[in-house]
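Lab meeting, item 3. Inverse folding demo.
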């Protein structure tokens, strides 16, 4: 394996000998050395161990502001300070050994099977299918993560400082904009560019056309009176499902589309944390019209069986997408423990991604750059404490799309370098309050 800090090669057996302090810098990638792959720390035939915060920071190593000049941004690491599980399982290993998950199945007191509703029975069956794969694959990657120093017991035991969360008003602004704009008669340009000057950017219409930072470095901008950091070569459209026409008018066809829909569930209704979208409305999304031939479509989905069935049996067939794979995102603490007990009857420590490919026309062929998407993989990372902030998938999906692929994220709450993003809170996690900055000399 290659140490991306010093460029030296490390034998697997040598990992245990690296001191904990020094080893934290030996982030090891066995995929490739591109900068945005730095979020991939480890990989094997079962999946990847990711550093989601590192991916964000790679896009902001070089930033520019009209007022500040050149500087560096870092997403506040405290938002990833998950030091202990949300719920501790009685079956979790309490030893100081390498294994962080107990491989022995312990009997648990359960409700009688007759007391479970059909949805719960279906969820049980799905969990039985994936349990062993999650258990063994997670242990393998986490053990190596401990040896290389990324996951460590040498953490502060004091509770992390409660981080403030910016009150996002973007969804409300979208609702207001709908009452003022007539999209079908809009004379807005297809794409507009941020300038960086607050006075000039104040006139940008974020709801009627795509807005972009075309530069190779990140930009600090003031939009609607708030300061945001835009990654390099990123585009976005701030709107909801009723105002997708600007995305369609741009004419871009995407090779990868990632969706994170606001699924309807009881907890969302109770908390009013965000508005949900009925499954039937997802069918109206213009995914086929936005897709290039052979487009890879990836959808985040909750563990509710009815949502899984809807995508497999209705949504993907409606779009002409062939289901190819089911991957799982496993959430762990900084010590390498799953955030919920694996066999918890209420919340599981994983979420599902369904991957498919738009059915190609009979006269088209698979491009040689494309690799076959593996049927099962694990994505393991420390989750953010911020609601619905998912890890970026750019690095792990790169082998399965062409090198110059156009990528789109739908229902996004953040931006990615080189991607187009759409959603009614698309700038939420780009707000300056989530970042720290430091001055740097301009690269020559």
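The presenter then showed the designed sequence:
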């Amino acid at each position: 394996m290659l140490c991306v800090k010093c460029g030296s090669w490390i034998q697997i057996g040598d990992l245990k000998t690296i001191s904990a302090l020094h080893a934290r810098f030996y982030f090891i990638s066995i995929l490739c050395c591109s900068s945005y792959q730095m979020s991939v720390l480890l990989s094997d035939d079962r999946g990847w161990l990711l550093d989601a915060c590192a991916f964000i920071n790679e896009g902001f190593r070089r930033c520019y502001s009209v007022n500040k000049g050149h500087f560096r941004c870092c997403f506040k690491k405290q938002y990833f300070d998950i030091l202990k599980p949300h719920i501790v399982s009685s079956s979790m290993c309490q030893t100081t050994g390498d294994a962080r998950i107990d491989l022995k199945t312990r009997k648990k007191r359960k409700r009688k099977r007759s007391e479970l509703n059909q949805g719960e029975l279906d969820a049980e069956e799905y969990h039985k299918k994936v349990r062993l794969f999650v258990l063994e694959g997670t242990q393998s990657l986490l053990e190596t993560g401990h040896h290389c120093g990324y996951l460590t017991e040498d953490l502060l035991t004091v509770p992390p400082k409660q981080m403030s969360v910016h009150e996002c008003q973007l969804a409300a602004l979208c609702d207001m904009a709908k009452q003022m704009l007539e999209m079908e008669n809009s004379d807005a340009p297809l794409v507009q560019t941020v300038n960086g000057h607050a006075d000039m950017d104040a006139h940008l219409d974020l709801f009627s056309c795509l807005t972009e930072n075309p530069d190779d470095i990140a930009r600090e901008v003031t939009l609607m009176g708030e300061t945001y950091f835009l990654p390099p070569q990123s585009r976005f459209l701030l709107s909801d499902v009723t105002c997708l026409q600007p995305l369609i008018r741009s004419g871009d066809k995407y090779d990868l589309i990632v969706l994170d829909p606001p699924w309807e569930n009881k907890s969302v209704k109770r908390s009013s944390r965000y508005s949900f979208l009925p499954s039937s409305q997802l069918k109206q999304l213009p995914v086929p019209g936005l897709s290039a031939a052979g487009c890879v479509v990836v959808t985040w989905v909750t563990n509710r069986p009815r949502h899984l069935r809807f995508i497999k049996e209705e949504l993907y067939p409606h779009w002409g997408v062939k289901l190819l794979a089911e991957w799982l995102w496993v959430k762990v603490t900084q010590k390498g423990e799953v955030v919920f007990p694996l066999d918890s009857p209420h919340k599981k420590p994983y979420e599902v991604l369904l991957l498919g490919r738009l059915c190609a026309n009979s006269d088209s062929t698979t491009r040689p750059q494309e690799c076959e998407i593996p049927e099962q993989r694990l994505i393991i990372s420390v989750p953010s404490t911020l609601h619905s902030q998912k890890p970026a998938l750019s690095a792990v999906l790169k082998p399965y799309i062409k090198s110059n692929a156009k990528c789109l994220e739908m229902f996004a709450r953040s931006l990615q370098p080189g991607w187009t993003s759409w959603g009614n809170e698309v700038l939420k996690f780009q707000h300056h309050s989530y970042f720290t900055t430091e001055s740097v000399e301009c690269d020559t």
